[in-house]
Amino acid sequence: MTEWLDVLEIGPECNERFVECNKVPELDKLEIKLCGVSFLSGKYCVGRADPMCHTIFYVVDGSLELHTEKGQQTIDKGHLVTLPAHKPFLIELQSENFSMVWFDLNDCLHWRTLCENRPSVALCESGRQIFHLLSFIYYERSNILRQSSVKQLEYYLDKTLCAESSVSSDHQKLDQLIRDIEKKLHFNWTVKDMGAIIHYSSPHLHRLFQKRFTRSPIQHLIFLRMERAKYLLKNTTWSIEQIAEQVGYKDVFNFSKRFKKSIGLPPGLFRKTDVA
Q: How far apart are CA 222 and CA 228, in angstroms?
């Protein structure tokens, strides 16, 4: 961009919960000027020509376009974006739905040191924890009950901004993918579906799974389904048919056959034994 402007275009479908220091004074002690949880849809375009605060946001779901002096970049979920004070930026919504948790940090020595000495975009595994912590702080009116959550929030902010991760990008992306798969074990997953989530080709994904788990992506999917089935058999009174459907098998016979092959016992007998 040749000219940076202050832009604030937020459509009616966007929902933002602002956590203000006059309502949560504990944040003032952390040098947090303002923060919030955002659920965005439709029109969203925010730009700052000369921001007075350091801005950070953790992408929980969806994607957006980030413009800085370094260029343009698409940011997907599972990333932390760090925008130092006095550096212009513009962000625009790219996906149909988007959620994030964000912070405007005062330009004090502590935050300046952390924000000016790290990459503008980095993988981050703690976004959802921070998202839920701030959501709780937003709703909880008792400062006594907020104390532990604010302490956790302080820990996660420092931890993520200080992080110089020794874990590879591939490793982190696989962790993200597995979390997504575990949330939808009933889904009819293909390797192509898996690769699309973290923008990897099917052959590359296959190599990564083999290297990390000594299993193919589909074999690891089966492993996750069987682990969930074992838990449900031992800890619920759901029927075997219901459990089969929960882990992606519409045909209970196919589920039972797969379970016995993987675990060594049919589901009904496994439920009755002391085997974990």
A: 10
